[in-house]
Fold each of these.
Amino acid sequence: MACNQHEEVTTDKSFQQIISTLPVNLDDGVCKYKGFWFPIRLMERILSLEESFKCKETDVLICGFTKTGTTWLKSLCFAISTRTNFDAFTTPLRSYLCHDIIPFIEFQTNQEEKNPKKSPYQEQFPLFSTHLPFCLLSESVKSSGCKIIYICRDPKDTLVSLWHFVNRLGNDQTLDSVFKCFSEGNNGWGPYWEHVLEYWKASIEMPEKILFLKYEDLKNDTVFYVRRIAEFIGKPFSNKEEEEGMAEKIAKFCRFESMSNLEVNKSKGPRPHGPFEVNNNAFFRKGIVGDWRNALTAEMIEKIDEITEKKMSVSGFKFGASV
Ligand SMILES: Nc1ncnc2c1ncn2[C@@H]1O[C@H](COP(=O)(O)OS(=O)(=O)O)[C@@H](OP(=O)(O)O)[C@H]1O
């Protein structure tokens, strides 16, 4: 079976067989595979991608756990890749939600749709995205010269963002229940800490292949990271672009205040998003660092910090801004 950008995924009995053996949490609609939990409805697609997603040298895969800033990173990467002038990236970004320009590969459920739509921009600018953990990326992703850009975020902000998001989906869930699920690692694509650690370790082993970013760093100095991403994908800013202030223009256009105010991001939807239907504005809430202080209880903060310390301290990895 082939599953790449050009070929179609079909139902496979062996995938069904694997899925039937996986631990399942029916309350949350997730099953566990290779240490991570995934929505059952996406599992066949995920297995297929793991087996046969094909990458080219020129592809860039944008990766991140849910609610860590993938929408923002997509807009930045798209703008950086497509920039020839201001209109070249602002026109598409004014017309489409980033997730429609660069869809998550596991959300393209092409069992339902015979010919899954690939964004027209992907033909020209090979950007793809996924929430999948590093261990489930296909052999082709790992062995081809394709680049990976990963974003992570403070787990407390990720949790709070997730809680608001699930409520925007109409799943009336208390902070307590989302906290329990997140801290136990049972939510889709979780556990979060292992997700981050895998990419972090891989980025140290292969710095030329994986660029590891933090939401907080991007917030502190977006222009610096716009330049960093451009260099990483082999498209550094020319002297002329520097004189024109292109990196600054991209950072400014993609910042939360402008993206969340675009008509397409304010009012369009609902749209399919993996196993859910969601309005575009669900991807834009506050876009700040440290909002957990307004939501989490002292016990929750203590518990998340404790898990972070336990799981991350050996690696030397620290969440939050680098400086
Ligand atoms: N442009 C820009 N700049 C800064 N922050 C932004 C931006 N766009 C979205 N956001 C905030 O990112 C959070 C959503 O994360 P994701 O985009 O990864 O969500 S998703 O996984 O794609 O559903 C969510 O964070 P919270 O505001 O804390 O909920 C969004 O508001």
Amino acid sequence: MGIPHFLAIPYPIPGHVNPLMQLSHLLSKHGCKITFLNTDYIHKRTNNNISISDKNNLKNEPTTINFVTLPDGLEPEDDRSDHKKVIFSIKRNMPLMLPKVIEEVNDLDVENKISCIIATFNMGWALEVGVNLGIKGVLLWTASATSLACCYRIPQLIHNGTIDSQGFPTKAQEIQLSPNMPMMNTTNFPWRAHDKILFDHIVQEMSTVELGHWWLCNTTHNLEHATFSISPKILSIGPLMSNEINNSSFWQEDTTCLDWLDQHPPQSVIYVSFGSLAVMDQNQFNELALGLDLVNKPFLWIVRPSNDNKVNYVYPDEFVGTKGKIVGWGPQKKILNHPSVACFVSHCGWNSTIEGVYCGVPFLCWPFSGDQFVNKSYICDVWKVGVELNKDENGLTSREEIKEKVEELLGDQGIQERSLKLKKLTLDNIVEEGHSSKNLKNFINWAK
Ligand SMILES: O=c1ccn([C@@H]2O[C@H](COP(=O)(O)OP(=O)(O)O[C@H]3O[C@H](CO)[C@@H](O)[C@H](O)[C@H]3O)[C@@H](O)[C@H]2O)c(=O)[nH]1
């Protein structure tokens, strides 16, 4: 048996590239060889964002991660926040080019040819290419196992009339996907954007990813224990929280916020971040800014630049902001792990969810789209480590709501205690004999 050589292929957004990069680092530490395939566009973008000190460090570090790239088929000026465009362009172009890349990589190291493909969702075509070349494959699912279970169950949900063929719930109701799983509302299914073309894509992609022998999930047994019975393919390997240099950041990280956090007492700072995709309108932005002013606590707020790096938002005239620090992009895991952070105002993307849980930080949930509503239900109703921010009759989360909920959250001793307990249970998965550690070892042995 040789060393497993993995070809890692993420869909080109941070929510997929980051966890696959972390898994790659972990596999590399276990002696595996990794070839990481980014689109040209993303490779250029993430490479520009490695800080000078990290670049120097990278040179000294022996790494078994080798990078290769392929074009996504779009023009440089095309809008890559249009996911339909990106998904279909990739599906049209990359499958034809992948065999050549594999051949070239294998020619460079004939002793250790690519033995397994790890693709994230939307990149299931890579598993098909692998099957044709006799290379085995797995899916890395980057959202919760419960979201995966929802997608896996689409055919049954259509069959039993819970949703129609376009993914719309036939009525709002509480259902259980399988016995022992928490009740979930049919309006919270992760494909809630209700786009027929994207829904059909999900259905097709779910049948393609059946080619993956395992569906690796960045989750843990304690967080979603009842979900694993949905399919024997689901394997928890999380939380993926490697401390390696972040060589996959889409924006330059502003690390001055860590020094700023150092100057604040323990559990005093409200951390506000909505991941890499969520966009709010200017009215909502104003309410958030003024809400943070109203709260009697310092805040660290990530106001992400748009993809073309032009600032989108205008701060309202009344905004004071002197209690806070605003940065464009920060080292989120280090921020969440900082003792000064008291709570996390989050859009509940899965990576943010698992990072917050790992750090034992209570949540103020502000879901925007997709799987974030399912995640919010787990945070507030299942694990009970957060509260939800509600919207008023105009569809806005008001400044008063923000102030009230921050105070409610920080005054809730039960939530603080449960967050720390959940942290411990979650970390137990990655100790030597922990559930996720064992799963990872078994997976590597399978890949040999
Ligand atoms: O200043 C920041 C802000 C965020 N992050 C990182 O960016 C990632 C954000 O990921 P996530 O919280 O999952 O949010 P999205 O970027 O919105 O992720 C998309 O992909 C996820 C995984 O599939 C889904 O759960 C989300 O709903 C979807 O929007 C996390 O690792 C954060 O640590 C930083 O490094 N610095």
